[in-house]
Amino acid sequence: MKFSRAIVRKPGNSYVNGLTTSDLGTPDFELALEQHAAYVEALKQTGLDVTVLEADERFPDSTFVEDTAVLTEKCAVITNPGAESRNGEIEDMKLVLPRFYDTIEYIQAPGFLDGGDVMQVDNHFYVGLSTRTNEEGAIQFREILSKYGYEVTIVPLKEFFHLKTGIAYLGNDLLVLAGEFIDSELFSKYKHLVVEKEVEYSANCIHINDYVIIPKGFESTKKQITDAGYNVIELDMSEFRKQDGGLSCLSLRF
Ligand code: CIR
């Protein structure tokens, strides 16, 4: 799949008060801003035209823009984020996405869905059931996307926070997988690039055009992806990891 654009949102001062389950400490806001700027540069390096939205202090987690929408070649789906403190983030997306899409669909209560629970593999979408995405949300998503000719498979999660916390698609039928997904029947038809438990944070990587962006400091993953023939860009993600964020969470790519 060829990507041409991305949408990101700068973290605000309130970022340090966002949701997290990690025990890595409070993020350094200035460093988060620097890491975010490097992320934007990396997206540009892959060939994307990047729309940078200004920080929204009302929503500490709003830099994790991926959770607010799923952007496909045929339509945009505005989600209904499962965390109460984040749900209002979609209001601004309702204003932004019509700049890029004529066809916009919505997940509606009692359905909840976070974009981090959705992975696209060519014409097939996988949607995880997590603490943020419920069955009703996943079924609505399947109904919407089937209208556009896409296939949707629902994946109950056991341990991962979001689906894409532990899995990424690199194109050419190749998946990066960690933990509970390694032996899952659902993904057995694809080629596997397995990342071990100690480095599973690097399973959340992003394939854009000729590049794969991975978090910095994961040498075994870097080697595997380089050996598979990809150009690798590494980014320091320390201040986003502290708030349970990975590389995919910071952008909508389309
Ligand atoms: C949250 O708990 O919602 C944020 N602190 C992290 C969201 C990460 N997003 C993602 O995995 N797609």
TrEMBL record:
What's in the keyword line of the UniProt record?
Hydrolase
Return the similarity comment. Belongs to the DDAH family.
Molecular function terms from GO: amino acid binding; dimethylargininase activity
Q: Which residues form a coiled coil?
A: none
The signal peptide annotation in the UniProt record is none
The question of whether Cytoplasm is a record keyword is answered with: no
Q: Which InterPro entries match?
A: DDAH-like
Q: Which organism is it from?
A: Brevibacillus fortis
Please identify the protein, giving its name as recorded: N(G),N(G)-dimethylarginine dimethylaminohydrolase
Entry annotation: catalytic residues: 162, 249
Q: Which Pfam families match?
A: DDAH_eukar (PF19420)
